[in-house]
Specification:
- Helix 1 crosses helix 2.
- The protein has one domain: Rossmann fold.
- It contains five helices and nine strands.
- It is globular, with a radius of gyration of 16 Å.
- The model has no long low-confidence stretch (mean pLDDT 91).
- The chain has helices at residues 17-34, 50-57, 110-120, 136-140, 179-183, and strands spanning 10-15, 41-46, 65-74, 83-88, 98-106, 126-134, 147-151, 157-158, 174-177.
- The strands form two sheets. A six-stranded mixed beta sheet has the order 4-3-2-5-6-7, with helices on both faces. Strands 1-9-8 form a three-stranded antiparallel beta sheet.
- The chain is of the alpha/beta class.
- The structure holds guanosine-5'-monophosphate and magnesium ion (2 copies).
- One magnesium ion (MG) is lined by residues 45, 48-49, 103-104.
Amino acid sequence: MDLSDIGNDLESVLLSEQQLNDRLAEMAAQIDEDYKGQDLLLVGVLKGAVMVMADLARRLHHPAEMDWMAVSSYGSGTKSSGVVRILKDLDADLTGRNVLIVEDIVDSGLTLSWLLSNLRSRGPKSVEIAAMLRKPEAVKVDLDVRYVGFDIPNQFVVGYGLDYAEKYRNLPFVGTLAPHVYES
Ligand code: 5GP
Ligand code: MG
Ligand code: MG
């Protein structure tokens, strides 16, 4: 699949399917090593983390469990406010568990900061974060992201789970949108 297959909405490919796959294999190997012989519960954050979760989880040798949460950030426009509401909670009880939150992207880090303290209040043994993408803003907040796929520039990206008005999540790569898409 290339850019022309989906019309002229995309400006450029930031991370190709191959780049994502190569990095996921490295991240999975690291997670296997870190959690060897230990319990592991992967918590995917809907909807953006669907692709990362599926691709990361299937590369693990660890017999990890998978659970899902859906949250919504209140905020104006594209900025998140850090005020978060749970739309779908976990099925799993976190008491004594090693939890690894799987996320698509960390931007302001506000959503993840909230999620981290929420999950930590449920008595887990540990809570760590794996995010496929991280923007420069995230580095400024005090958020320890244990596994990061790629540090990317401060641009609005779509694909590989990430949407613009719910579209483009199904792209197998990460791309930037052409300006006319925002403007129209
Ligand atoms: P934060 O709370 O870290 O600012 O925001 C995290 C959420 O905002 C992500 O889970 C994602 O849904 C959305 N987000 C942040 N940056 C981007 C981006 O560049 N593209 C898309 N499609 N969503 C983004
Ligand atoms: Mg997300
Ligand atoms: Mg979105």
